[in-house]
UniProtKB/TrEMBL annotation:
<keyword id="KW-0378">Hydrolase</keyword>
<comment type="pathway">
    <text>Amino-acid degradation; L-valine degradation.</text>
</comment>
<comment type="function">
    <text>Hydrolyzes 3-hydroxyisobutyryl-CoA (HIBYL-CoA), a saline catabolite. Has high activity toward isobutyryl-CoA. Could be an isobutyryl-CoA dehydrogenase that functions in valine catabolism. Also hydrolyzes 3-hydroxypropanoyl-CoA.</text>
</comment>
<keyword id="KW-0101">Branched-chain amino acid catabolism</keyword>
<feature type="domain" description="Enoyl-CoA hydratase/isomerase">
    <location>
        <begin position="43"/>
        <end position="372"/>
    </location>
</feature>
<dbReference type="InterPro" id="IPR032259">
    <property type="entry name" value="HIBYL-CoA-H"/>
</dbReference>
<dbReference type="GO" id="GO:0005739">
    <property type="term" value="C:mitochondrion"/>
</dbReference>
<dbReference type="InterPro" id="IPR029045">
    <property type="entry name" value="ClpP/crotonase-like_dom_sf"/>
</dbReference>
<dbReference type="InterPro" id="IPR045004">
    <property type="entry name" value="ECH_dom"/>
</dbReference>
<dbReference type="GO" id="GO:0006574">
    <property type="term" value="P:L-valine catabolic process"/>
</dbReference>
<dbReference type="GO" id="GO:0003860">
    <property type="term" value="F:3-hydroxyisobutyryl-CoA hydrolase activity"/>
</dbReference>
<keyword id="KW-0496">Mitochondrion</keyword>
<protein>
    <recommendedName>
        <fullName>3-hydroxyisobutyryl-CoA hydrolase</fullName>
        <ecNumber>3.1.2.4</ecNumber>
    </recommendedName>
</protein>
<comment type="similarity">
    <text>Belongs to the enoyl-CoA hydratase/isomerase family.</text>
</comment>
<dbReference type="Pfam" id="PF16113">
    <property type="entry name" value="ECH_2"/>
</dbReference>
Length: 382
């Protein structure tokens, strides 16, 4: 056999092997629910579980974190873009069902998922490269954690934002204790306790998004961003500003909560959740009655934990908030309301949870205090 034939055969085998490796890498990315690509000057993260509304699971976290750290130290990568596939959602939250099943049997995922998710949230918050989250569609819970701590968050008319955790016996985690109390007035506490949903341009008006761009302009925006040459944060900001200035959709309508902002500040200013409920009942307006009714459906334990979380978080760094929230996550795993909330809202869907304790008055200060206690060696560390 000639040398030429041998060389050709070797090259063919090498090519096949490379294709197999690349194929495996791509399929492992697809299997993990996330695509990681270098496009122009950008590292691009695509959350790719559209049938599950891009809900964040452990494999996704484990793929995103190391790649984000690589891009952060890579001289060829200037910006990071994160987006959701499928058009319906950026990310509808964490994979709560998997965590619930793990928590019931004491499996490690109930600890590991929160630990790794919060570590990723911190990496996003401290990322030295401009981080741009394109939050079109449903953006809740874990999806907020993947976006809100980044430098730029771009909402569209399809964006639907909420932190609905008190309805499932949890609390607005993923750094909610950091960003929510930094919104205007008592808006963050209102959103945290009630799970109120913000849509479209209102997500920016509330301060959750930094920009609003019409969804039809997003592909063009993405192309302009990845084609930038060694962009600074100011360069990115200029591009986003220009697209926002071209987006007039919904600009003529006032902020959905505009007429209620002074009411929210007044009614949600109290030294306890019980005080807030009393304020709402005493006020008697349609808005106040609606909020009182909403709070009556939420886990009393979750409401008290959330109130205390935001009070504390207002004076803490993002890292310290995440350490606190990890303690709270494990307290919820030890309790019963989380499992009952998930059963009621996500599994049986009867929307009729049996909370324990069932009233705010029965949730003792001692039990709330315990939720914030150090986990010792198991505390989250950065």
């Amino acid at each position: 056999m000639s040398l030429t034939v041998l060389t050709s055969a070797y090259r063919l085998r090498t090519l096949c092997r490379l294709q197999r490796i690349q194929g495996h890498m791509m399929s492992s990315q697809v299997d993990s629910g996330v695509l990681l690509e270098k496009v122009g000057c950008a590292g691009v993260i695509t959350l790719n579980r559209p049938k599950a509304l891009n809900a964040l699971n452990m494999p996704m976290v484990q793929h995103i974190y190391p790649q984000l750290k690589k891009w952060e130290s890579d001289d060829e990568t200037d910006i990071v873009i994160i987006r959701g596939a499928g058009g319906k959602a950026f990310c509808a939250g964490g994979d709560i069902r998997a965590v619930t099943e793990a928590g019931k049997v004491g499996a490690p995922l109930a600890e590991d998922f929160f630990r790794e998710e919060y570590t990723l949230n911190n990496a996003i918050g401290t990322c030295r490269k401009p981080y741009i989250a394109l939050i079109g569609g449903i953006t809740m819970g874990g999806g907020v954690g993947l976006s809100v701590h980044g430098r730029f968050r771009v909402a569209t008319e399809k964006t639907l934002f909420a932190m609905p955790e008190t309805a499932i016996g949890l609390f607005p985690d993923v750094g909610g204790g950091y960003f929510l109390p930094r919104l205007q007035g008592q808006l963050g506490l209102f959103l945290a306790l009630t799970g109120f949903r913000l849509k479209g341009r209102d997500v920016q008006r509330a301060g959750v998004a930094t920009h609003f761009v019409e969804s039809e302009k997003i592909p063009e925006l993405e192309k302009e961003l990845v084609d930038l040459k060694s962009p600074s944060a100011e360069d990115v900001s200029r591009v986003l500003d220009s697209y926002q200035n071209q987006s007039a959709l919904g600009a003529d309508k006032p902020f959905v909560l505009e007429q209620h902002m002074s009411d929210i500040d007044r009614l949600f200013s109290s030294s306890s959740v019980e005080g807030i409920v009393q304020n709402l009942k005493a006020d008697g307006s349609e808005f106040a009655n609606t909020q009182a009714k909403t709070l009556s459906r939420m886990s009393p334990t979750s409401l008290k934990i959330t109130y205390r979380q935001l009070q504390a978080g207002a004076a803490l760094s993002l890292q310290d908030v995440l350490v606190m929230e990890y303690r709270l996550s494990q307290a919820c795993m030890r309790g019963c309301d989380f499992y009952e909330g998930v059963r009621s809202v996500l599994i049986d869907k009867d929307q009729n949870p049996k909370w324990n304790p069932s009233t705010l008055e029965e949730v003792s200060e001692e039990s709330v205090e315990q939720c914030f206690s150090s986990l010792g060696e198991k505390d989250l560390k950065f």
